[in-house]
């Protein structure tokens, strides 16, 4: 994927292709109308949670959003450079890369990186899936429903993704997680 990926232009093109006004998309995605305008004009970078919610209003995944022309391959092994960047330039200190074609396998494997203080957004995530992961570097605060804890290297989590959840780096260095979600969410 090119370093020049324009989140706002891609969102605008998909919205127009779907025949929706900014207001209609905002209503479908249950986000403020102004948020769509700010993203499309490049005046705001959405959080992972916000972008996922907006794309849900269009009925597409983040994977399809960032790699629209990617054709599935029967690839078995993946070098680091071959992972699909699902975050583009969201500007929130979170980088998420996916292994292969998640929809073809019904399993999404992610390599997540959180800068100090970065998180998935103030809005809690919730979706139809199960997910789990292992922290491989740094510290990450995981909130699931009314439970919250800080996990370090070697610590893990596993939960029903319908429970509202959030990830936040509370440490001073990078936090990295290897996670899986089924069925695929992003």
Automatic annotation (TrEMBL):
InterPro entries: Cro/C1-type_HTH (IPR001387), Cupin_2 (IPR013096), Lambda_DNA-bd_dom_sf (IPR010982), RmlC-like_jellyroll (IPR014710), RmlC_Cupin_sf (IPR011051), TransReg_Diox_bact_type (IPR050807). Pfam families: Cupin_2, HTH_3. PANTHER family: HTH-TYPE TRANSCRIPTIONAL REGULATOR, HTH-TYPE TRANSCRIPTIONAL REGULATOR PUUR. Residues 11-65 form the HTH cro/C1-type domain. Keywords: DNA-binding. Signal peptide: none annotated. It comes from Sinisalibacter lacisalsi. The lineage of its organism: Bacteria, Pseudomonadati, Pseudomonadota, Alphaproteobacteria, Rhodobacterales. This is Transcriptional regulator.
């Amino acid at each position: 994927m090119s370093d020049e990926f324009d989140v706002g232009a891609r969102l605008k093109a998909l919205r127009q292709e779907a025949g929706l006004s900014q207001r209609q998309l905002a209503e479908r995605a249950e986000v403020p109308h102004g948020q769509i305008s700010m993203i499309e004009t490049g005046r705001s970078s959405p959080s992972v949670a916000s972008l996922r919610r907006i794309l849900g209003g269009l009925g597409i995944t983040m994977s399809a959003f960032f790699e629209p022309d990617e054709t599935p391959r029967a690839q078995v092994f993946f070098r680091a450079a071959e992972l699909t960047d699902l975050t583009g330039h969201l500007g929130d200190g979170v980088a998420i890369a996916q292994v292969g074609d998640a929809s073809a396998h019904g399993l999404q494997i992610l390599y997540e990186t959180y800068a100090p203080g970065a998180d998935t957004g103030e809005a809690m995530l919730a979706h139809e899936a199960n997910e789990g992961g292992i922290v491989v570097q740094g510290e990450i605060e995981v909130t699931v429903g009314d439970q919250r804890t800080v996990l370090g290297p070697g610590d893990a989590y596993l939960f029903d993704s319908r429970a509202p959840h959030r990830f936040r780096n509370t440490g001073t260095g990078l936090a990295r997680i290897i996670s899986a979600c089924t069925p695929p969410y992003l």
